[in-house]
Amino acid sequence: MSTTAEAGTDLFGFSTDDDRADTTRHRSKFTEDALERHKRQGLELAVRARVVAMVVIGLTVSILTPWPEAAYYLIISVLFILIGVAQHRYGRVGTSRVELVLLFCDLLLMTIVAALPNPFAAAEFPAVFHYQFEVHKYFFVLLAMATLAYSWRTIFAVGTWTTGLWLIAMVGVWYFGDEHAQLSADVQQVYADSPILAQFMDPTKMQWDIRIQEIIVFGLCAVILAISVRRSNNLVLAQAAVERERTNLARYFSPNVVDQLSQNDDPLKQVTEQEIAVLFVDIVGFTSYAADRSPQDVIRTLREFHGMMEREVFRHSGTLDKYLGDGLMATFGTPIAGETDALNALSCARDMVVVVDKWNSARAAAGEPVMRASFGLHAGPVVLGDIGANRLEFAVIGNTVNVASRLEAMSRELKAKIVVSDSLKDRATAQSDPGDSVLDGMTSHENVTIRGVEGTIRVWTIA
């Protein structure tokens, strides 16, 4: 089956952009994995459905058909199950020649069963009479099972192949079948008063009008199911795109914020101004540490540190704004402001200190040098919105960010692990319960000068 190359709509009334979406726009690794997972699940379900269907059909035919005729249908049922298992083994997203061959084997085997008499049957029937048993309806079972795992094009191919095989089988039986002139004459004599009934009851007549109706009905069902499967695949792609967006959001926002954003109709690109808390984290002396070590050791250390810090940011409902070499910037209250943003930021910094201490204990036990981390926190107004022309980035802009960064840098001078602005400390106090330990052990420093801030301010440190 070939894809439509021109713009417009195809024979199903779908935009041909959907075809290109199937092969280009949506073919990221994430959507490929989603489609592969969907295909594998569908194949597993199809195998189970096939086994159940073949067992039911085999038992039913065994009950209704005398032996040894029933043995033939049991053998056919087992062959169908084996073909289904092979399809599960070789099925994958995209074109698979083995899978197509197995699918054709399905239809060919069904055509043989439907067109040719049972070789174990004791009674001899005219070859054409076999069609009176309406075995064509069993093709619908294969068509239904194909919808569980295949693309809409494959469903359409099933309808096309079945139509072709069924026509070939009918013409072959009609042309090469044994003639039973006497039997036909006997039927005509019995129903001499009703030519239409005689035509219908004659076991030597192909009854082309009925056979053609069977093909038309099957073809219509195949087309309808192909449309349905195509819509289903588009829904899978759309769902995969949503999951990809949630995964991308989860790289920067805590799980609870991701849940809120996924339900929010307002785009992030809207420029807003709001009060938030900003946290800067840095490894002290990392440049000299990295100078004496291999790139692999440096990257491994950074990944361990960043991973620990990232988990703490998300655990305290923060947003990972960006990595800054050996440090990072996190915000609390973005993109949605909360009632305890300042308190969450301070709690996060304190827990980060605890995590780093445990990490250093493990490093010391392994004979590796300990790493000292510094933290700076500030709260105030910022501007939120997308920046950039073609490659957009959600950014937090404002003097509050600059102050938080400079407070982190002051930790060396003040010989402290955490430096907190008076603004953030006041807000955290207002948001905390009386006696909250997160505010314990803070030392005040008066008349501190910070570049970018007029006059002097008071800061608080935690050693």
Report on the structure:
It is a single chain. The protein has 16 helices and 8 strands. Strands 1, 2, 3, 4, 5, 6, 7 and 8 form an 8-stranded mixed beta sheet that branches. It is rod-shaped and about 120 Å long. With 463 residues, it is of the alpha+beta class.
Features of the shown structure:
alpha+beta; 16 helices
Task: Please outline the helices and strands.
Blueprint: H1 17-25, H2 29-64, H3 69-90, H4 97-115, H5 139-146, H6 152-176, H7 181-190, H8 195-201, H9 208-250, H10 255-262, E1 272-284, H11 286-291, H12 295-315, E2 319-324, E3 327-332, H13 341-365, E4 372-387, E5 393-397, H14 399-409, H15 411-414, E6 418-421, H16 422-431, E7 443-449, E8 456-462
Parallel strand pairs: 4-6
Antiparallel strand pairs: 1-3, 1-4, 2-3, 4-5, 6-8, 7-8
Summarize the structure.
With 463 residues, this protein is α+β, with helices and mostly antiparallel strands. The chain is built from 16 helices and eight strands. A hairpin with a 6-residue loop joins strand 7 and strand 8.
